[in-house]
Amino acid sequence: MNCEKYIYAGNRSTVLRRMISLGLDVQHVLPTAGSWLEREMPELGLPYTAVASKKQAIDFLSSQKFDVFVSTGFRFILPITQLQGVHPDTKFVNIHPSFLPDLRGADPIPGAVLFRRDSGVTCHIMDDGVDTGAIICQRKIPHFNGVDAKLLYHLCFRLEPEVFQEALDKSFEPIAAIPTTGSELLYFSFQLDDDRLNAADTAEQLTSRVRAFNTPSKGLRFAVESRSYKAFGASIIDQSEITHVLGGAEKFRILAVFDESIVIGHIDRLVRLDGIHPKPTNELIGMYIQVPQINM
To answer: Whole-model pTM?
Structure first.
């Protein structure tokens, strides 16, 4: 039986629930303040301390005795070398939702959709960098047509407990170092303009941008006549036969409005944007989406 003492930190309970089901000795949980994990903690019945700052996390970990620290979605970058000075025999491991070394950073799932990259889940040793420690084990989710952030979050979160258990079975021993440089490797953490309609996007890039930010807290932002909107779905309409019905395909001109959707021109193609909020009205027909967008 595993007799090690664990501390778990993060913003979701996927791996923590597997740890509980395996009977691991989880001494304490450090949910990110305001996260889903913090809201779930009363149900899980484990001692916990909501963490709102990096200093709070460091102070707590420095004062405890534990054998393994497990992180999934913990927002604070910890000084592992400093902590190992206090806990020289402790293992610090992280479960990251990408196929490292690609897509290091805080937002790998939107990044995988936006840039059409393979995704997955990796368990790795933590060091002082961001997702740079040696790999223990990983599973890949190849990119596929129609993937969006909502679905990819679901797939990755379902894989996380499996990858953790595989790492546990390997006693958290790494199998490979992570290269941190290379022309093909991406680092992605959300920036202010990433979820705004971009004038330089091709039709394919535009649909990927919408799908990358289709979670409830995001949405692709755009404006028409200084009014702000968000879109949560997108697809390309290739049938040129309907272009003359809608009045051409002039870039960013709104050609049709129905339900919570609009159709816009995009050079020689059409793009359908769905889940528009607030709901669009027929008054928008013939108007142009503004690029760059206003502050929202």
So the answer is: 0.92
